[in-house]
Write a structure and sequence with these properties.
Blueprint: H1 5-17, H2 21-34, H3 39-51, H4 55-68, H5 73-85, H6 89-98
Helix pairs in contact: 1-2, 2-3, 3-4, 4-5, 5-6
Length: about 100
């Protein structure tokens, strides 16, 4: 049986919370293959990228999440925090003004 996008997202979140990063990443990737602009799948891929030290990759995922749904404040926070970690202060300031 094929999962709906929302069921796959929930399963990915559950795996992510349980520390099953490979499973979570696989589920998020499946969602993004079906719907590349899915805000929560992009955001969660960004969280995984941060957790393994891939800040530039994380920033790309956070930007995609923001572009898809700018009304979620946590997307802004994660993008700005990651920009700061990458010493991209000007970008962080611009995003903070936009938020």
């Amino acid at each position: 049986m094929e999962l709906t996008l929302e069921a796959a997202l929930q399963k990915g979140i559950d795996a992510h919370r349980a520390g099953k990063i490979i499973e979570a990443k696989s589920l998020y990737t499946e969602i993004l293959n079906a719907q590349p602009k899915h805000p929560h799948a992009n955001y969660n891929m960004g969280l995984i990228a941060v957790s393994v030290g891939k800040m530039r990759e994380a920033l790309l995922f956070f930007k995609l999440a923001l572009n898809s749904n700018p009304s979620i404040s946590q997307f802004w926070v994660s993008y700005i925090e990651t920009s700061i970690k990458l010493d991209q202060i000007t970008d962080a300031e611009v995003m903070l003004d936009q938020a």
